User: What shape does this take?
Amino acid sequence: MQINDESIGQAAQLLKNGEIAAIPTETVYGLAGNGLSADSVKKIFEAKGRPGDNPLILHISDIDQIFKYAQTVPDLALKLAEKFWPGSLTMIMPKKPIVPYETSGGLDTVAFRMPDNKYTLKLIKLCGFPLAAPSANLSGLPSPTCAEHVYNDMKGKIPLILDGGVCSCGLESTVITFTEKGVKILRPGGVTPEMLGEFCEVEIDKAVTEGLEDNDKALSPGMKYKHYSPKAQVYMIECEDRSIFAEYVNKSFDENTYVLADDTDNIKAKTLPYGSTATSEAAELFAGLRKADEMGAEKVYVMAPKKEGIGLAVYNRLIRAAAFKVIKL
Ligand code: AMP
Ligand code: MG
Assistant: This one.
C-alpha cells in the first residue's frame, strides 16, 4: 500500500494492536512492531526467521525519546544525533528496564536510530512508542530496498507493507558504540568513519572487514550470522583497477555467471546494474544480488570497493554475501 497520511493511520492502528508492518526508511525497508512489547517483537523474529539473540534497533522520532529508554546518554550521542539524525546512524546505549530483553536480544544495551523518511517519522509519532524494526527480509537474504523485495520475502506472513519507493541509501545504518574517547563502528553504513571523525576518535571493529573466529565475541551480534546471501555463489574480486577485473571475468565466466557492473566495464558476461561510484554501488548491491537469483545465476562476480567512505559499508556487506570468498588478483 502506498505510504501516505491515510495508510500510516491504518498502520498505526495495526501496530497499536500489537501487529507488525513493513515500513520504508532511507536505508532499507524495516519490519516494524512495538519495541516495548515482547509479544509484538516476537512476531518480528518469527516472520523473519531471525535468531533471538540478534538485537533490534528502536526507531524514534524525537531525540528526547532516548532519555525514556536509555539508562545513560553520552554527551557525544546528543551531538551526533543533532548532526546526523534523521539519518543512517544507530547508537548503542545501556537500556532501561522498560525495553524488553526480546528487543535487545538479551543484552543490557539497546540501539537507537531516527530514520529519514517523513511518513515513517509521522507513523512513529502516531504510535506513541518506538518501533523495533530490523530489515524486512527473511533472515540471511539480502535486505529489501523496495516494497517488491519485501513482498517476495514476507507475503502471507505480515498484514501490511507501506510502499515508499526505492530506498535512497540502500544499505543498513552505521552502528556505533561509545568508547572512552569517541566511538567504535560495529557495522559501517551511510554515515562514514570520515564523517564521524570530524567529531571524535573513531575505531573500526575488526569484524567489519574480517570474519569472526570461532572464539571471537561478536560485539554486534548480527555480524556472526550468514548474511545478505543470495542462492548464487558470490565472488568478491579484489584488484587494483577495473580493467584487471574485466579481464579476469572475461576469462572465467560461463552462461550462468552474472556480474554486477556498469556498462562501461567492457565485460562480456551478463551484467546487472551496479553503478560506478561507491554511493550507487551501495544503492544497487542488494537489488543486484536479488536480481541475480531471479535470473537463475550460479555465480556472481563483483569487484571489491575501496574500504573508505560508504565503500567500507559496501565492502562489509559484499564480503559477507560472498561468505568471505575473496579472489585477490
Ligand atoms: P538490522 O535491523 O537487521 O539491520 O539489524 C540490527 C543490527 O544492529 C543487529 O544485527 C546488531 O548487529 C546491531 N545491534 C542492534 N542492537 C545492538 C546492541 N544492543 N548491541 C550491539 N549491536 C546491536
Ligand atoms: Mg538485517
Summary: DSSP finds eleven helices and 14 strands in the chain. The CA atoms of residues 77 and 164 lie 29 Å apart.
